[in-house]
Amino acid sequence: MDTYQIKDLMVPISEYATVSEGATLFEAYLALEKAQEEYDHNKYRHRAVLVLDQHGNVIGKVGQLDVLRALEPNNANYELFEDIRKYNFSAQFIIHLREKYQMQAEPLTDICRKAGQVKVEDLMITPTEDEFINIDTSLNTAIHQLVRGSHMSLLVTENNEIVGILRLTDVFAAIFHTMKECEI
After folding, report:
1. Within-domain flag for 136
2. What global pTM score does this model have?
């Protein structure tokens, strides 16, 4: 792994999908779609959008799971499904109840239309201290940081400025490439 450096594996911030604070989820989707079209098609596609403040600083990230959470109903009845887990009902029974409840819910197109108007700052995850890594840090340390925090990516810094994003998928590909070379 000594042959790979973080700067070689990271996606520069200029090539990543970004939106400004105040953007809607739909605008974030359009930014993600545009970034994926422009990104090298031989690499893994982007799975998140970075949210920037008025000064261009990264203040958060909206990932695929965050978008799906926005589609979930936010009412008291739905929370009951989570509460009944403590009574040891089977996962299949709870899924059946949810499906029955959701049949009475709004159509998916209506849910998506509403979710598309949600502001990204209402969904975004604010990066924690362990989601930043200096560009000069070893890849071994980056791997440890990804694993320890169960992170899908790390924000790469240089001189206290975010310059890129180190994605788990790119590190994973580098590891398997190294394994393949070792077998020869």
Report:
1. yes
2. 0.76
